[in-house]
Design goal:
- With 143 residues, the chain is α/β, with parallel strands linked by helices.
- It has 2 domains: 65 residues, 2,3-Dihydroxybiphenyl 1,2-Dioxygenase, domain 1 (Roll), CATH 3.10.180.10; 77 residues, no CATH class.
- It contains 3 helices and 8 strands, in the order βαββββαβββα.
- The strands form 2 sheets. Strands 1-4-3-2 form a 4-stranded mixed sheet, with helices on one face. A 4-stranded mixed sheet has the order 5-8-7-6, covered by helices on one side.
- Strand 2 and strand 3 form a beta hairpin.
- The longest helix is centred in the first third of the chain and has 12 residues.
- The chain is globular and about 50 Å long.
């Protein structure tokens, strides 16, 4: 049986260049501007060809309206080669801001927003923490 795969996550933005610049820097991805529509496609640098061909990508698309309510879908990021606190500080330097979406004080993730207010989380466990625990046969029960 053939199943579906996520090819692209689309982010609406009043200023696609601003939002795409943030996400490209946050993820270490490559930005390709669509000269016809004003959008920007982001893809990992290891993916050859056009964004979305061989893996996941993000399209930042122009819209006339600003963000008005909490996202119903968001990205969860995991620090790679640093701690959660170090990654949050790096994202602040790129233009992220801390936001409260009702998560409470006792959660292990940090909720941030990109320069246009799109929420995302930075999980407590790094890529390395997860790999170490999986190698040890531990099944993680927390982000």
């Amino acid at each position: 049986m053939v199943t579906s795969r996520i090819a692209v996550v689309a982010i609406d933005a009043r200023d696609p260049a601003l939002v795409a610049t943030f996400w490209a820097a946050a993820l270490g991805w490559i930005a390709l501007i669509d000269p016809r529509g004003g959008g920007v496609s982001l893809s990992p640098p290891t993916v050859g060809g056009r964004p979305g061909e061989a893996g996941q990508s993000i399209d930042v698309l122009p819209v006339p309206e600003g963000k008005t309510i909490k996202n119903r879908l968001h990205l969860d990021l995991r620090a790679d080669g640093s701690t959660q606190a170090e990654e949050v500080e790096r994202l602040f330097a790129l233009g992220a801001s801390r936001v409260d979406v009702g998560q409470g004080d006792d959660v292990s993730w940090v909720v941030l927003a990109d320069p246009e207010g799109n929420e995302f989380c930075v999980l407590a466990r790094s890529v390395q923490d997860l790999a170490r625990d999986e190698a040890a046969g531990q099944i993680p029960n927390s982000p």
